[in-house]
Amino acid sequence: MAGAAAAGAALATGAGLLAAPAQAAPAEPAQAAQPRGDAGARGKDCSIIGCSEVENFSGRKVRIGRDWCGAGSNGTVKNGTTACDGHTGSHPEKWLQKGHHSGWEGYFADTDTFGIIKGCTMKVQWNRDGSEGGDMKTYKASRHNRWVKVADNYDVDIESYKC
Question: In 3D, which of 102, 37, 91, 38 has the Cα closest to residue 67?
Fold first, then answer.
C-alpha cells in the first residue's frame, strides 16, 4: 500500500473515494472505439425516457456511480465520500477511464452520478440523450468531495478535470 500511495495512485474502497488519481491507471482491455455520444444498447436499469450516461474526455479518470441516493433533480450537487453516504444497500461505483463511456461493457448502462474530488475542478457539458452541444457548467470541489446527479435523459460529457 505504501508503494501505491508514494506513486500517487488513487485509493477507492467500499467506503468511497479517498484520493485523487495522480497517474494513469494500469492498462485495461482495449475498448472498441465508438462515436461520441453512442453508448450502444440500453441497459435494464434505464427508464422509459432513456439512460443517464457519462463520457470522459478529460485527461484523468472520473468516479461514477450507478445510483443516486436521496432527492434531487438533474445537476443536483451534494458533498460526501460516496453518492450514497448514510444509505444502506449496495450502491456500486467505478472509475471511468479517460476516453471511455459509461455505457460500454464493464461500466453501468445507467450511470446516475459522477464525483469530483476535493481540490478539483470539472468542466461538464450537459446534453439531452442522443444530442450534442448542450450547456457547459463548471463544478468546483473546494473543501469536500462532491457528487452530481445525472437525470435519465442526459448524456454528460466530462470535458476537463483538473486538480
Answer: 91
